[in-house]
Write a structure and sequence with these properties.
about 850 residues, mainly beta, Immunoglobulin-like, five-stranded mixed beta sheet, calcium
């Protein structure tokens, strides 16, 4: 406590800091700590005066108030205090007049709250306003005049209008003092509310003739320091005999009225009696000492004493009225009484909701019991009508929890998922317990902010696509799509090709993916014969932090296109030689001549082959199996049939459009080799060259041919030179000796079967070339230009030897040469006879081996 002198007067001011101490209460919401501070200050304190150090009293750092944006929240229109957040002090913002603020209500206090954020804290502050003796007692009327009869008995009482002192406690009105006189003494009384009033009591009889009037002075003094006082002059007129004063039949009247009652509503009736008669017995009723909100609130009929409502009655402003009644007769005598009017509350005020603090956005990963808003709810009604409950819809993941009196916290009650509900519309309803109940509501919109908690999901678990071979680079294959349930950047999806290898080659060499649209495009042209399918992995990744992703497998199947013509494996078409199939003239209908073997590297129906006989020397003699390519005789072979038969077979696939290949089959209709050899020397050679040979192959063949011809010419020169040396330049014709090509075992009728196969492939299947060597059987004749002359010489030698006049029979031919030539011719004839027996078996064996080779390919 401290003493101060203000305006030249000594005032005793008490400041009770921390009068109730610093109370810490654990809030029931979110673990927040709240405090209650109480200060005591004198009224009329200067603006800027420090009330207390809030930060220190709350145990907080001064920076906490600044960082937490501390602020004062009060329900009044006038902000009497101010919070210096930087210093942590509470200072005066407006002068406080306790009498204006609280009237005669004690104790007088200001209550407000201090709210801090980050985290949210709520502290209650109560500032008690202590009264100082700054008001002098005064009488409403400076002069009081009343009349009394000279017949007034000793002890008659004359109430004096009470003095008014707005101060309270010791500073309020404490004592009345009457100036010295011979007739009256002053008696002081205390009302039920603690106020004091005085009455003049007649001490000795009055004598109008002796003294018709009296002038008295009454002093009203308070108990403050320094003491203040007020004075009123009382003029007493002594009247003629009226020695009975009116008297009320009750010392205290009680009545009850509901608030908001209409004007003229009946309240109560008071009664008083006067023993006098005539004019001295006529009583008039009136109110005395009306102040504050009671002024003009009620009306009393001066004749009947009926009290009725005259103004607005509001329970929230005044819960009880205590009025003094006077009954005065014509002679000036009065009687007094008191009426107490209780105002019953009516539920006429709906709760008022005030949002003190509010977060409009909450992260979806917020923990349970996160504070969303702090709400203040007040109801001006009292008792049951002022009891308020605050609720929200039960289905929402929020709850309302009471913190301090009339304060509620809106907190989360469960976890959030923005992908299910992105925004909540919270209707907070405050409802009182009146009848009927009144309610009010407020709407809060809380948005759930997104976090990256959902990975992209593809529309399919597996994608399958098809693309035709020989496609152009950049061809669109398919499009993969993924969706992300998150929002904005967290839902922005990019597509990537996972680094995998296909046959040792990175997948990016085959397919590319558009990172924004997910469209897959071919990087190169596909070849079905090389690569039939591509399996790769696409990753969809969102733009969150950290990013989430998922993978999907895409299988691209290459579809075949009929881009390869059939390839004939047998019979082999060679340049510079003629391949012929031999058919005996005794062949029956259906005799298997040979089989055209062909393949197509395409697949499906593009590889289904069919065979047709396009041209033939004699169409009535041969036919071709459309499915198996077998060439058989249609009729019995006769002597009239030509020895040389030329068949053109076309092999066609089933593609759209179809592709085909042509093969020429030479057939010799004969029973013996000499007959075939003699006729096939003039067989036309097939000079169909491969148009697809490159320049380098032609050049290489030309060089090799040149070297080979050069070597042959040199060999022939050397050979002729040696022959000329052996024959001693004889003019006789030289018959060359040809050693037998087969062993003597050939006489048994068997021939060795030797098959040579040569397979040549390139990386481009359309330029593949397959060559097969057919078994060397007796019915296949290969007519090389170099051997034609030899066979002709053999035939000519045989004819010479068979002729009776042949030079061999003479001595012109040397005997050794002649014998060797005959021996060679006889051997050739023996081989021919053995060939005819096994011809059919060897032909079938050769066809079977060709079929086996085809299947292996």
């Amino acid at each position: 406590m401290f003493l101060a002198f203000l305006n030249g007067r000594c005032r005793f001011i008490s400041i009770f800091k921390w009068e109730l101490g610093f109370l810490f209460l654990l809030s029931a919401i979110g673990g927040r700590v709240t405090g209650h501070i109480r200060y005591s200050i004198p009224e009329e304190l200067k603006i800027g005066s420090v009330i207390g150090n809030v930060a220190k009293d709350l145990g907080l750092d001064a920076s906490r108030l600044h960082m937490g944006r501390a602020r004062i929240v009060s329900g009044g229109n006038i902000q009497y205090t101010e919070l210096k957040a930087d210093k942590g002090t509470l200072v005066m913002n407006e002068r406080i007049d306790r009498e204006q603020l609280c009237g005669d209500l004690t104790p007088c206090s200001l209550s407000f709250e201090i709210i801090l954020e980050n985290p949210m804290e709520l502290h209650q502050v109560t500032v008690e306003i202590l009264d100082i003796n700054d008001n002098t007692p005064f009488f409403p009327n400076p002069v009081i005049q009343f009349e009394t009869s000279e017949s007034a008995t000793v002890g008659s009482k004359y109430p004096i209008e009470s003095a008014v002192d707005p101060d309270v406690g010791l500073n309020a009105l404490q004592n009345y003092i009457l100036s010295p006189n011979n007739y009256f003494v002053l008696k002081q009384h205390t009302n039920p509310d603690g106020s004091k009033y005085a009455e003049l009591v007649l001490q000795r009889p009055l004598d109008r003739e002796e003294q018709p009037s009296l002038l008295l002075k009454v002093i009203a003094a308070d108990g403050g320091t320094p003491q203040r006082s007020g004075t009123v002059n009382i003029n007493v007129l002594v009247l003629d005999a009226n020695d009975n004063a009116p008297a009320f039949n009750q010392s205290v009247y009680r009545a009850t009225i509901t608030e908001n009652s209409h004007k003229g509503t009946y309240v109560a009736t008071v009664n008083a009696t006067d023993a006098d008669v005539g004019a001295n017995g006529e009583i008039m009723f009136c109110f005395s000492k009306i102040k504050g909100s009671a002024v003009g609130a009620f009306n009393i009929d001066e004749s009947t004493g009926v009290i009725s409502v005259a103004g607005d009655i509001d329970h929230e402003k005044e819960k009880k009225y205590e009025l003094r009644l006077e009954a005065r007769d014509r002679g000036g005598l009065t009687g007094t009484s008191t009426i107490v009017i209780d105002v019953s509350d009516v539920n006429d005020n709906a709760p008022v909701i005030t949002i003190m603090s509010y977060s409009s956005a909450v992260s979806e990963d917020s923990s349970v019991d996160t504070t969303i808003a702090i709400i203040n709810v007040r109801d001006a009604d009292s008792e049951k009508n002022g009891q308020v409950t605050c609720v929200i819809e039960e289905s929402l993941p929020f709850k309302i929890v009471s913190s301090l009196t009339s304060y509620y916290n809106l907190v989360s009650d469960s976890s959030f998922d923005r992908e299910l509900i992105a925004e909540y519309k919270i209707i907070i309803i405050a409802k009182d317990s009146g009848s009927p109940p009144l309610s009010s509501s407020v709407i809060l919109n809380v948005k759930i902010s997104d976090i990256n908690d959902n990975q992209p999901l593809f529309e399919k678990h597996f994608y399958s696509a098809y693309v035709m071979e020989n496609n152009a680079p950049g061809t669109s294959i398919t499009t993969v799509r993924a969706k992300d349930a998150d929002w904005k950047q967290n839902a922005k999806i990019s597509y990537f090709l996972v680094d995998t290898h296909i046959g040792g080659t990175p997948a990016s060499h085959y397919v590319s993916v558009n990172s924004e649209t997910g469209e897959l495009n071919a990087v190169r042209s596909f070849d079905y014969e090389t690569l039939k399918e591509v399996e790769l992995t696409i990753k969809a990744q969102d733009g969150g932090s950290p990013p989430l992703s998922s993978n999907v497998t895409v299988k691209i199947q290459i579809q075949d296109q009929n881009d390869n013509p059939p390839q004939v494996l047998y019979p082999v078409q060679t340049a510079g030689s003629v391949v012929a199939e031999m058919v005996p003239r005794s062949a029956d209908v259906g005799y298997l001549v040979t089989k055209v073997v062909a393949v197509d590297v395409d697949s499906g129906q593009n590889a289904w082959l069919s065979y047709k006989l396009q041209k033939a020397t004699d169409r009535a003699l041969f036919e071709v199996g459309s499915q198996n390519g077998e060439i058989r005789t249609v009729r019995q072979v006769t002597e009239k049939d030509l020895l040389k038969q030329r068949l053109t077979v076309i092999v066609e696939d089933n593609g759209q459009p179809s592709r085909s290949a042509t093969v020429i089959v030479n057939v010799a209709v004969a029973d013996s080799f000499p007959e075939v050899l003699s006729e096939f020397t003039d067989f036309p050679h097939d000079k169909d060259y491969n148009d697809n040979l490159t320049f380098y192959l032609v050049l290489a063949l030309a060089v090799v041919s040149f070297l080979f011809i050069t070597l042959v010419i040199i060999s022939v020169k050397i050979y002729r030179w040696r022959q000329s040396r052996i024959l001693y330049h004889s003019s006789l014709p030289v018959i060359p000796y040809y050693p037998p090509r087969y062993s003597d075992t050939l006489g048994t009728g068997t021939l060795p079967h030797t098959y040579n196969y040569e397979v040549c492939r390139t990386t481009d299947s359309r330029k593949s070339d397959c060559k097969f060597g057919r078994a060397g059987s007796q019915n296949v004749l290969i007519m090389d230009p170099s051997s034609t002359g030899t066979m002709q010489r053999l035939q000519s030698e045989k004819s010479i030897l068979d002729e009776p006049d042949s030079p061999l029979e003479t001595s012109l031919w040397p005997s050794p040469y002649r014998d060797q030539t005959k021996h060679s011719i006889h051997r050739a004839e023996n081989r021919q006879r053995h060939f005819s027996g096994e011809r059919e078996n060897r032909q079938r064996e050769a066809l079977r081996r060709c079929d086996s080779v085809q299947l292996q390919l």
